[in-house]
Amino acid sequence: MVIGTEPFSITGMQFEFLAEDDLQFLVHPLHPWAGKRPVTREQISSGRFIIPEASGDTFKLIEAHFKKERIEILPLIEVAAEDAVKHFVELDMGVGIMPRWLSPRRLN
Predict the structure, then answer these.
(1) What is the sign, positive or negative, of the torsion defined by CA atoms of 26, 32, 34, 37?
(2) What is the pLDDT, as a whole number, of residue 6?
(3) Which residues does residue 75 pair with via DSSP β-bridges, in sequence order?
(4) Of 18-22, 80-84, 94-98, which range is least confident?
(5) What average pLDDT does this structure show over 74-101?
(6) CATH of span 23-102
(7) pTM here?
(8) Which of 3, 51, 101, 103 is buried most deeply by CB count within 10 Å?
(9) What's the angle, vertex CA 102, arms to CA 31 and CA 72, rounded to 5?
């Protein structure tokens, strides 16, 4: 048994839905998007994003969401670990995209 995100391609396994999560933008407190709601489609298209690496499930969720919304995003940095996303955002290097349950409530 494995608890994780729903795989995009399943062969020989059964998937049972347990819960859902959503993705959110993670920004430095001094970033122009901090406290601004909602962020416009144009701002998203021109954003500098820090996202999990392309081979991971989180990347595939991000890609599928923005494709459905017809918004093209260009990653600035792809990283192997979600903690690395947080560290780059703490340095105000761009906007992180990650599941809410992995995101800190506040950046230091």
Answers:
(1) negative
(2) 67
(3) 49
(4) 18-22
(5) 86
(6) 3.40.190.10
(7) 0.76
(8) 51
(9) 55
